[in-house]
């Protein structure tokens, strides 16, 4: 079942509902129309649905009859009928009160009577007493799992339900068809219908079920009366059957409700749905020679069975909550689709047939037997059997044991637009499909055709294939031309123009088994980027698609420009894509979020009705409006999306909604072969050639009404259903201390522990390792020892299942470290049944050997998932990882854009200076303030420039101010303000820097002259005051009326950037490795000055600094190692570290100071073993500091001569070394730690090799080089390369047999920035190259050692050593040999 939840604004949500006891397995996802009428109406833990049912009985029927006759009540016939059937009783005083509003208690009583809930429990609500007339009903409905109360433990039985609330619930629960017109224009108060209820109310109104008042009003928020509720239910279920009743030879116009056991439906036609209610219990019900044109819902029945004999049912849904139900299908019965949502016993006798059986995960243990015909079974459940044979979970297979049907159906005549059959015609407008809540799609006349290709051979620029090159162009090749071999999806075709042709009024794209260009198949791909792009509209195509494993036809859209970043930050709209292996369905999806691999997606599937599939002509369409996307098949709406986001790299906020779907996109038609969409399957040779046939492609503009006005997406919190994993002391992560064994999962398909930790390394991804528990400072941590890094971040994982509720905010926190600097991707998402979708953004945790705390705050925007996955993804790197103190706690929604100090982003101290970030108003981080003036500020979503409309400028410039607070200002610095500006007429504005309160002017206002033309303005400020982290940038716009426009505002600190310091500033301490002896260093020995020590001295020996101390003196500073007067820059965090040992155990003190103040002072204890010490130093002001190592007399020091050895002293900007020296373990002194490998032969092809460390070198032993250069790879990936920077790559290499290898730097799209082929001999050679980046990239260094020209089949070894990949000038900056630019 499902439940309906209403929040305090009356907003309805639907979530999976399990019963209080014996609940279905977590993760079961049920379709809305499986729910039984109003059992759902009461399931809520926020503000429950209001409602009611009847109370105690009237003494005599005549009382009611007389009352109705005397009052001539409009509902008298219906009320009398319900009274006669025992469903309706009155009050103790003999009254009926038909016009009294329904209460929750009354509705529960009516539902109990109507549906026969037969479970009994004890009502747990403090305001429901056992002696009250509704207590038994509340108890029964609660025990059945369909009702919950308020958080305070109350039921509130006297609360009422409104007309629109009832309409919304009933429309969904009785599976009413959508209506094309949801405007409700026939009612005077249509605008009063709440947004959530518009479509539902329109459905009931359009079908005549919900009727208005004589004055032409609907009164949606008026409480529902008793008579109105009965009338609604009568129209929804005009025929009801009681226990033992037989129905023969009737035609039921609407729905049929079977309330109790023993019912027989014989020789009957039901034009609506049939509901076999829970009141049947463990009894039986029979359908004989009966046709059900809707859906047969089975919620009751047991071992005594539900019998279908010689009957026809379009769809059968099984969802019985207590124990399995037995379904016997016999005679010549024909069932279109069987949806099994709870355990069942299905017997298909000889002569009976079923097109499709879909077994959901909650139907574990279902058995199917018999000799009938079943065309296809899709199984998502465990322990499901077919004639005694276990069916694999998640497999879809044609059934041969229960005699399979031959897929029938000859190709139909091409259909008219918006439908599946008929003769093709060219309409002026599309069929917009069914109605929608926001906004209504409208009439056909709303849409006007603006672009089309009818593929009729017309046009002045046709190529030899008949393709109109004024409308289309070809995208040719393998994708490698774009740096995406396999088009980023492992596709196996080469796209050629020769595979497309226009003939007989259609575009034919043909996939062939005639390998070309290194790919085994060819096909074609057409796109409109060079010819046509559009923002918003209706996009549709009518086409028929190939059937068979390995075919991937698609009709989709991509952004004309990557305005918001690389895929998928700038979006992708998949109008239709299909798997030829699954011809009964197509999918529609959007991709959005951040650039890969942090992208996300949302989508749904459309299932074709019986008798047709993708091999027939169908019309696929998307209606795209600001803030809403709708998907249609043959005019039927099957998905609407209104929630997505887009994040740019290093941006302080998301792009304003509806980004990224607020820009020009272009169309694509293609037929791919193979690829990841269907698990890398390739077609059987017998299926080729195969074609995708397109009748037309059309694009429409919305002209009949305005486009939708987008609103900020909101996801309201829903309660966690029964069966959710409970928090322990507020933590949804169990076994935080690793007291339970960590389950190792290495086999694909092996179940994870549902409650505790799992160490996952599936062989598919090439990862391997061990998981153990290790104490760090007495606290248990999971240590992941990684022996194979694999080919993906998820190649090595630590996973625990957690329960996440839709709309709830969560905070994940944990401690972690690594054996060496590395990243670890942490996220929460769904499993296979949720398409592996992401629920949170991915936290790219930058790990180091030092233990750090990490946090991730997110909102669960997808549907509630009781089996969500908390994943620590540690693949792609062999450095060990420690993880501990993991907590997942519910959190309050964070303040997204507070007015607080903001660090500069990309060297800009102003946030949202382009007015396209944050809230939908695009004013995030800015404030317009007036004092004795009148003005407003707004950002047009198209122009994306701020407009200050000043109607009264006040008395002075300060009367209207545009302010951005939280600007970090550093004393003594110069700032350059740059912005674009214009005005509706020539005028002057001013700009200034103030303190937070506006009482101190740091930089005097400067006048800027504006004209009517947008011009770039620049102003320089001198910050003479002390630093202030909460300064303000202020534009003074007052003094006169008019309109002022601003855009592209930036404030940069001249000379010194807090984020992009020069290399010399990133590594301010020089020669810390003493590679240049004692250059840049000095020492202080007080005894030399005082005459009592002439022996203490320092020198460099074997690359270490040795300080021989004859006497420590009397003070800590009597013996010091120093480097003085180097800069630290405001806004940066520095890492101060060193390696040190002493021949005598002793303390030393490490200090960073200016002479007047110490900013870091740490005392550390040295032993005779070399130790590493590291500390972090945040800096808020520009400083000139000195490093001092105090080795004089410290507390605890014993007297005596001794030596101190120091090495690798560092004071450097945090993260700078990782950015400057990207190769990890390039000398292989730590084995293959930090290196990843790829061997294509593990998946397909003949390549065979092994990777190992041999005497400090990497040795790759190649048995077979494979087919492609990339079949064998040694690599380091996820390296952040910066625009404009030059990188040096050098290494040593040799081979036991002469051959070539490739040294490559490329990104995830396989765009190469370094592409060198080098020839190896048996002698070790040094190779070096330079590469300069034109844009920021996340890339990797790879050695491609697979197939190469001239390579023989002999086994050989390749040796690689001393790999360096570093920023040019960084080594010199660190050593101090030169000053880096």
From TrEMBL:
Keywords: Hydrolase. GO terms for biological process: carbohydrate metabolic process. Residues 431-705 form the GH16 domain. Residues 62-120, 121-184, 185-247 form the SLH domain. The keyword Hydrolase applies. The keyword Transferase does not apply. Residues 426-437 have a biased composition (Polar residues). Residues 370-448 are annotated as: Disordered. Gene3D superfamilies: 2.60.120.200, Galactose-binding domain-like. One of its GO terms (molecular function) is hydrolase activity, hydrolyzing O-glycosyl compounds. Residues 398-417 have a biased composition (Low complexity). Pfam families: CBM_4_9, Glyco_hydro_16, SLH. Belongs to the glycosyl hydrolase 16 family. This is Glucan endo-1,3-beta-D-glucosidase. It comes from Paenibacillus algicola.
